[in-house]
């Protein structure tokens, strides 16, 4: 009965429910999984934010560089939050996302700074004519990267020696007197001037008063001025002072109290991006000096032709002088012959026969004959010199002066075109520059 009763109340002795311990373990495991899931979701959300911020910075940087290549300057900051640049403001503000063509209003919340240095001086070694030696001299340099004055001027070397400093002349080319710069200002204001401003910025000493980044290991120290900087700031924990030209280091790692993202483009980096080294130095130095050499070669060729003309005239004069000498010698021969005959007649009349005086008189005839022969030889030499000089003059005049003029026009035209085109010419500028032709010193300024 006992066994029957047990079997009746527990028909399945192997089946049983969760114990309290098993339930507790299951809840703990689910809790751990939940915590890990929430943390993973948080990390993924933060990573998505990081990706969006990096993408936004890269898009903003591409837009700024696109504006720079199109306008040959960097955009000014937006200081009144309308999305457009304000060049009357300072160096730091918001990114002018509408000006740079970035169709994303979120970019308008980015912090943006551009280097704008005017009136600052750098100590540069220059040749002092008074002391005849190289001396360091303070020189004011224009390094406003958001403006575009016509400041890139060709430099021609005018003197250079083993024991002296290079003496040069810097002078602007007058493109606008030959082309319509009002319709195409880019002919006179282009990346040449932009690269010149970048070069000046690189020569100036570091300044805390202009856009710069701070060191990674010391957030208060200046790491150097930069061309421009972009920053996505954390509004809840700001680490950038709105009125300061300082930006945090782009390499500063994120932490609990720092979540800003910074992108900074250095001065040398901007020079490389714009390929200034490929067109700035060749156009303003190499091409300009070749053009100056061509301008000097043409008058040299004409001067040489003038010297050959003088040599021809000297040869003609020598020939005429030799002709006169022949006439003189012939007259002397006639006179000597007459005197000799007169002497012989006098001898026969006086002595009735031959005398030594007749031999002397006959000898003077030989001397006169010799003078005539010598004058004839001199005449031949003078004529040879005259005709040789004339041949050299005619051969030189037929080729070199005209060739020098042709080369001068071609070289100066190409040098000026290089300065007009800049680094990023559009089709209109290219067409106008290709239509320019230097016509020579008669209708152009005295310097190339």
Task: Write structural notes for this entry.
With 448 residues, this protein is α+β, with helices and mostly antiparallel strands. It is built from eight helices and ten strands. Helix content is 51%, strand content 15%.
Shape category: rod-shaped
Which structural category do the helix and sheet elements fall into?
Answer: alpha+beta
Q: Which value, in Å, is the CA radius of gyration?
A: 47 Å
Strand content: 15-25%
The parts where pLDDT drops under 50 for at least 5 residues are 1-9, 442-448
Q: Which series of helices and strands comes N to C? A: HHEEEEEEHEEEEHHHHH
Average per-residue pLDDT, rounded, comes to 81
Name the features.
448 residues, alpha+beta, Helix Hairpins, 2 domains, two-stranded antiparallel sheet, rod-shaped
Quick recap of the structure?
With 448 residues, the chain is of the alpha+beta class.
Secondary-structure blueprint of this entry?
Layout: H1 2-9, H2 20-71, E1 92-94, E2 111-114, E3 116-128, E4 133-144, E5 155-161, E6 164-170, H3 191-203, E7 212-214, E8 222-232, E9 246-247, E10 261-266, H4 267-273, H5 276-351, H6 356-397, H7 400-421, H8 427-434
Parallel strand pairs: 7-9
Antiparallel strand pairs: 1-2, 2-8, 3-4, 5-6, 7-8, 8-10
